[in-house]
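Human:
I keep going back and forth on a fold encoding question. Comparing notes only helps if you start from a blank page. Show me how you would write down a chain together with its backbone fold. Write it directly below this note and I will take it from there.

Assistant:
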Amino acid sequence: MSITRLQISNLRNLKKVGLQLGPTFNFFFGENGAGKTSLLEALYIIHAGRSFRTSDLNKVISSSESALTVFLERQSEEEGVTKIGLMRERSGGFSAKVDGENVSTLSQLSALLPTQILSPESFSLLSGGSKERRKYIDWGVFHVEHSFHNLWRRCQRLLVQRNSLLKRRVSHRELQPWDKEFSSVAHELNLLRQRYIDKLLPYFSTLAQAFFPEYEVKFSFHPGWNQSETLADVLSRDIERDQKYGHTQSGPHRANFHIRVNGQAAESICSRGQLKLLVCCLKLAQAKHLFEWRGLKPVFLLDDIESELDGTNRQRVLEQLRTLGSQVLISLINVEAISEQLEESDRVFHVEQGYITPWQIKGDNTTNNND
């Protein structure tokens, strides 16, 4: 699966962009502020319905414009060409179409275009809060377990209702029916997460051993409550504490995972560069698992790769992506940083003040097609 054509309108300084992308590596180089990250942001928005840079999509829409649009054509061996379009309005409106048919939920777009992002923001996966780590797990489960999304939404609705009842300080007896249903759904959700992680771990372990041969790297998952007890028992026992804080302290919404290196928390023993490489291992492991279990290759977006990974580690990550065979879009400042890794099938684009121009690879150099 790869994106063959991409059109962007009114997204930051990208007023009107049209590109033909290659099926392997696509490099975008130019100065800071030229629009390279905005290009990757456009693809992430059509995948997730949100930006990886800001929670306020109004900041993404070009000034003086009322809406942004992203359109692409996706090519796959099984389904041929699929046309996907999305519009986000400054007023908050959303509309999307797949092959001319209206799409009502963002999850439908996400399923069509699995996308992995490696950016300055995503490198906080291990050093940041547990919410991002839950998103990491749920991205993988969503793409391999068809029942996951509806189950997750049901669990969220029950959690909101239970928290509302806690704030009203209803009796334990009134909470019991909600606790019973919430616990049942949480158990099903946790089974899907645990099953996914059990299958994911061999891929992660192999990559971690290749990238960190001198260390012992371990991955551990925590479902959000002590599994020596049922969630129903935990909720019953902790009801007074939950009422005190006004929200549920235990459950799948508290799920988390940790990585330990030589027996210590990775974030306390690893350098910033090593943490970034561990995040790469996690993302690559998901991609390898997705391909081997479902035959899907996610699109990879690599933002500001020069500053986030040193030369040696950058080459190792790119080699893994070459082996995987995914389509990759990479932003960087100096094209010289990757000149030795360029292959004949790669495409190079120059980005300047919101304009994107194809460059042609000639020997060891790249030249503008207009030269």
